[in-house]
Every structure is written in structure tokens, then in C-alpha cells.
Design goal:
Length: about 325
């Protein structure tokens, strides 16, 4: 039950990250050591699973999809999105510098942790890492657009955004922002607009189940290149989570409210001079360090837990053989 509780909390963290434009829930899954397990569980939704349902082999179907894993993880994600969405919007609205600083520390430490386990002397690592960085950076400098609110486009938005959500470094929320549907979907959640929510979830389900097969295949056949590409995505995303920004232009949503459209990154001193707001650089550095220590500590704890689990399994197999 303790492991299930931690899995639920990882889901909560993934959901909170997915709410923030610029931070990916896939990043949280990647750095918490459940990424490949998640992808493999998602890709198990196939015709074989359908046949198991038709034959009413419920136990076999539950085992095939790693049901307990998905149950606790998705419960955490759903809880977080419904409960923490308002909190995250509040923090980004009133305390942007400390909030972005914390996420910056998380991601930097994550990149270090991921690359530490890869063969940095292999050219394939650097090719994937550089390409991933360039692609993610290019996405972060794009500008949001105005798009239709028809149900078909909501479906497409869900399918595209969910693919980004499971990619470390590429934020599904930011993709929604680029497509002009970020605040529209959040408002639908807050108002419990059931038709919009259902269509969006349907699109997300189709995109998730399709893309998970591709990712699973890449991780099995081209593990080093794929992981280095994902690490590059995280590096390129740092442009979006830089705490000190100047808003250059705004756009107006369907309710007449103004939101940042294009921004540029500033140094803390320039931020104070241009915006007239305190840079809070001391608090920012402290939160960056806290985020980094938190990730490195969780990674170290996860390695020890994994080693203990492997040792227990080995001992059990040895006893059984004896």
C-alpha cells in the first residue's frame, strides 16, 4: 500500500505539471522512474485486450494492462487536474517567479539524472540530445493562435495535446495554449461542461493509445537515441520555464480577458528595471535548489528501493529453487 500511495502521489505530481503551460507530466513520469512502465501499460490496449474482454477474462485483461499501476496513477492525475488546476493558475498569476523557479530546478536536475545513465561517448546520444533540444526550443517560441471552438477541433486538440503530455519536456498544456484552447479547456473543467470534456477526453484517448505504441517501439528498438531525444526535449523546454520574463504582446480570449502572447527572457536585474517588479532572486534560487534537491533525492530513494526489490525477488527465486 505504501508503494501504491507513492504511485498515486506521482500521478498527482504529473497532473499538476500537466496543468502548467511549459511543464510536462511526461517529465515527472520520466524522472520518477515510471515512464517506460507507463508507456508499456498504455500500449497494451490493443485487439488482444478486446478479445479478452469479449471472452470475459477479466483477470487476464487486468494483468495485461497492469491495471493496478494505471488505477493508482490515473487516480492521482485526475485528482490533481480537478483539484489543483485553480491552485496552479493562482500561483502562476500572483507568484510567477517563485513558481517557475521551482519547476526550473526540477527540470535541470532531471536532465542531469537522465544523462548520467546514458553513454555520453556514443554519437547517437548527442544527435538525439541536440535534435530534441532544438525541436523543444522551437515549440516554446511559437505564438498562440485563435482557433475554432467546434467539437471536431476540441477532439483534435485533445489528441495532439495528450501526445505532448507524455513526452518529457514538451508540455501538453503549452500545446493547448498554442492551439488557443488552454483556458477554454480549463474553463470547461471548472464549469463542468460535460460535452466539451467528453469530446476532449475521447480525442486524448485516441491520441494516447496510438502514440504509446510508437513510443514503446522506439524505446525497445532505439533506446539510447530515444531517451537522449527525450532528455533534449527537457533541455529545450527550459526557455519556457525561465522565471524572469517581459510580456511583449497580449491576446484577448472569448471572455474579453487579456493574456500574454509573446514574451522574452530577462536577467533578474533587467526584469526589475523593465517591469518594475522585484526579481525575488534570493527566493528564486532557493526554490531552484529545493526543486533540484527534491528530484535528486527522489531519484536516489527510487534507486535504493529498486535495488531492495530486486534483491528480494532474487532471494525468493533462490529459495524457490532450493
Amino acid at each position: 500500500m505504501i508503494q501504491h500511495l507513492f504511485l498515486y502521489l506521482k500521478g498527482v505530481a504529473m497532473g499538476a505539471a500537466d496543468v502548467v503551460p511549459g511543464v510536462s507530466g511526461g517529465t515527472i513520469a520520466f524522472i520518477s522512474g515510471i515512464y517506460e512502465t507507463l508507456i508499456n501499460a498504455l500500449r497494451s490496449f490493443d485487439t488482444e485486450l478486446l478479445m479478452l474482454f469479449i471472452q470475459r477474462k477479466w483477470s487476464a485483461a487486468w494483468h495485461k494492462i497492469n491495471g493496478t499501476f494505471l488505477l493508482f496513477l490515473l487516480s492521482g492525475i485526475g485528482t490533481s487536474i480537478l483539484v489543483l488546476s485553480k491552485l496552479m493558475l493562482y500561483l502562476l498569476e500572483l507568484h510567477p517567479v517563485p513558481t517557475w523557479s521551482f519547476f526550473l530546478g526540477l527540470i535541470v536536475a532531471s536532465i542531469v539524472g537522465v544523462c548520467r545513465d546514458l553513454d555520453l561517448r556514443n554519437p547517437r546520444f548527442w544527435i538525439g540530445f541536440v535534435v530534441g533540444s532544438i525541436v523543444a526550443y522551437a515549440i516554446t517560441v511559437m505564438s498562440p493562435t485563435q482557433t475554432p471552438e467546434a467539437l471536431w477541433f476540441i477532439f483534435v486538440s485533445g489528441a495532439i495535446a495528450i501526445c505532448a503530455m507524455i513526452l518529457p519536456g514538451i508540455s501538453g498544456s503549452f500545446i493547448l495554449l498554442l492551439m488557443g484552447k488552454y483556458r477554454f479547456i480549463l474553463q470547461a473543467l471548472h464549469e463542468m461542461n460535460i460535452p466539451i470534456i467528453i469530446v476532449f477526453i475521447m480525442g486524448a484517448a485516441v491520441g494516447l493509445l496510438s502514440f504509446s505504441h510508437v513510443l514503446s517501439w522506439l524505446l525497445k528498438r532505439h533506446h539510447l537515441t530515444t531517451v537522449s531525444l527525450l532528455a533534449g526535449f527537457m533541455l529545450g523546454s527550459l526557455n519556457k520555464v525561465w522565471p524572469w520574463k517581459e510580456t511583449l504582446t497580449f491576446y484577448t480570449d472569448r471572455n474579453g480577458e487579456s493574456h500574454p502572447l509573446t514574451e522574452r527572457n530577462l536577467l533578474p536585474g533587467d526584469f526589475e528595471a523593465i517591469t518594475g517588479n522585484p526579481s525575488q532572486w534570493g527566493l528564486a534560487i532557493a526554490l531552484m535548489a529545493f526543486g533540484a534537491v527534491l528530484i535528486l533525492g527522489l531519484e536516489s530513494w527510487g534507486r535504493k528501493l529498486s535495488q531492495q526489490t530486486d534483491s528480494k525477488r532474487f532471494a525468493s527465486k533462490t529459495d524457490a529453487t532450493s
